[in-house]
């Protein structure tokens, strides 16, 4: 019997909480270093979603920041010493239309 079957969460727009800048990152990490890389990224307070994926990249993440400067600092710091990192692709989210299953206010 599992005790982690139901999770209740509050949905809050990051901008309302002071984090209007959102970024997505896709990373290619050497297979032998994926577990360690994910543990390192999971400790980053700004990372709000982190998943292993198939395809050209193997880690997908989303992070929320107070400013563009904070996003740039995060990318430089978090990815510079990441174990096994081969490549990183980052994108700025321009507008979100649906978050956690709920449509955004349009």
TrEMBL record:
Q: Which InterPro entries match?
A: Dimeric_a/b-barrel, Tscrpt_reg_AsnC/Lrp_C
Instruction: Tell me where in this chain the Transcription regulator AsnC/Lrp ligand binding domain is found.
Output: 27-96
Q: What is this protein called?
A: Transcription regulator AsnC/Lrp ligand binding domain-containing protein
Organism of origin: Streptomyces thinghirensis
Q: The organism's lineage?
A: Bacteria, Bacillati, Actinomycetota, Actinomycetes, Kitasatosporales
């Amino acid at each position: 019997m599992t005790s982690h079957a139901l999770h209740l969460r509050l949905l809050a727009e990051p901008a309302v909480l002071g984090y209007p800048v959102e970024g997505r990152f896709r990373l290619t990490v050497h297979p032998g270093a994926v577990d360690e890389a994910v543990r390192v990224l999971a400790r980053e307070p700004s990372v709000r979603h982190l998943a292993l994926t198939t395809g050209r990249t193997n880690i997908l993440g989303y992070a929320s920041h107070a400013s563009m400067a904070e996003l740039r600092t995060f990318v430089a710091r978090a990815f510079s010493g990441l174990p096994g990192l081969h490549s990183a692709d980052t994108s700025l989210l321009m507008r979100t239309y649906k978050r956690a299953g709920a449509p955004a206010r349009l």
